[in-house]
Design brief:
This protein is an alpha+beta fold. It has three domains: 132 residues, no CATH class; 132 residues, no CATH class; 70 residues. 66% of the residues lie in helices and 9% in strands. It has twelve helices and ten strands. It has a ten-stranded antiparallel β-sheet. Helix 2 packs across helix 3. The longest helix is centred in the middle third of the chain and has 38 residues. The chain is globular and about 80 Å long. 27% of the residues are buried.
């Protein structure tokens, strides 16, 4: 199927508007604030209902069927089944340290760290499984019968193995885990197949890996050369060479904050092209078309949005301080508390632009992935039957606990 100019239309399209999304996001922020965070589970559901419904695959919209109550139950389960025991173990470990039983306390701490790392891996797996099971297309959903418990162990040992050679095997670990995760997922009657190759990432990863070392080496060599050219004796910064060396250090620090993120985005861009490109579902093949400039522009937009949000967030505090600067200074000198009614109100108002900006960034993330996602092949609707995988009764509790995602 082609358009009037002979181009094949994209299989994945997005028809949302950030203005329409903002009409959902702003009430969500306000309701979450007045309910002290409880409403955020239902806010997440409202956002996903909009984003999924505005995303079409082969001219059919997606549908999100998850509920806020599922997410809330998942959070409560993690809070009581994991949060409370970990808090108790932490107190026990501190008590043993005070009693001089340092070795036993160290074992407890290491055990907790490994357990958290293991559950983080399980969270990645179960979150993806949950999202597939709640995503419908033509009445068909995805999912997995695997609980992700074995994947949690893979997450531990593969990341530790990648770290042993100074993190040089990180591309192997990330692609291997990606393949393992997706190979256990399905949609309808079809199993996903993921055969991405980690060796395709090594050039980009080595570039990202070496950039900090190259910058430090450049700063050192240029600084020494410039310092020596300024002559000996006295303060080196009194000479032209010393001033040049100091300038080079400043330039090097700025280069670190600019070049390292760019190198990271270049690797991230390659990772998604390789990972998605190795994904199959029946006769469908997938491609992620975003290149490095697309990622850089995307993140610059996010930084600009957060910059504006912080500007609006600090405005109430500025008004609070500059309304009576002498009185404010006197309170500081006297050591009086900041927790006045005006300060508390200003803090609550400051949360609104930051939370709203975070919602807009989530919208941009979904749109970015939808716009740059492509699929090729055929879908046999006669063979497309409902998935028989298990459907969990609760949501992304581990995701909320460890703040991880499964995109």
């Amino acid at each position: 199927m082609s358009d009037s100019q002979g181009r094949t239309p994209s299989a994945v399209t997005f028809h949302g508007s950030w203005i329409d999304f903002a009409k959902i996001a702003l009430p969500n922020v306000l309701l979450t604030l007045v309910t002290l965070g409880i409403y955020r589970f239902w806010a997440t559901t409202r956002e996903r209902n909009y984003l999924w419904s505005k995303t079409r695959f082969i001219d059919e919209p997606l549908e999100w069927t998850g509920t806020g109550m599922e997410l809330f139950i998942g959070f409560i389960m993690v809070l009581f089944l994991l949060g409370v025991p970990f808090a108790i173990l932490q107190l026990v470990a501190q008590g043993m340290i005070f009693q001089g039983q340092v070795a036993i306390a160290a074992i407890l701490v290491i055990t907790m760290v490994l357990a958290i790392y293991y559950l983080t891996g399980v969270a990645y797996f179960r979150t993806l499984r949950y999202r597939l099971s709640r995503t419908y297309w033509r009445g068909i959903r995805g999912g997995s019968d695997d609980q992700g418990l074995t994947y949690g162990f893979s997450y531990i040992w593969k990341n530790f193995a990648a770290a042993i050679p100074l993190f040089l095997l990180y591309p192997w670990a990330s692609i291997s885990l990606w393949n393992e995760r997706w190979n256990l997922m399905s949609f309808g009657p079809y199993r996903f197949e993921s055969n991405a190759r980690w060796t395709d990432l090594m050039k980009r990863y080595l570039l990202f890996y070496l950039v900090p070392f190259l910058i430090f080496a450049g700063i050192f060599i240029a600084g020494v050369s410039a310092g020596m050219s300024g002559g000996g004796g006295g303060n080196p910064f009194d000479s032209a060479g010393g001033i040049a060396a100091f300038t080079l250090i400043i330039v090097g620090v700025l280069a670190m904050y600019i070049l390292v993120p760019i190198a990271a985005l270049m690797y991230y861009s390659k990772f998604f092209r390789v990972a998605v490109g190795g994904l199959r579902l029946g006769d469908l093949e997938f491609e992620f078309k975003a290149r490095s400039p697309d990622w850089i522009l995307y993140w610059l937009g996010n930084i600009a949005i957060m910059g504006l949000a912080y500007g609006f967030a600090f405005a109430p505090f500025s008004a609070f301080v500059f309304a009576s600067p002498e009185q404010f200074a006197q309170k500081i000198e006297a050591g009086e508390t900041f927790m006045t009614a005006g300060f508390i109100i200003s803090a609550l108002i400051a949360i609104i632009p930051l939370a709203f900006a975070a919602s807009i960034i989530r919208y941009r993330a979904w749109k970015f992935f939808a716009v740059h996602m492509e699929a090729y092949g055929e879908v046999n609707l006669d063979h497309l039957t409902q998935s028989e995988t298990e459907v969990s009764s609760h949501g992304e509790g581990l995701l909320d606990a460890f703040d991880v995602g499964a995109m």
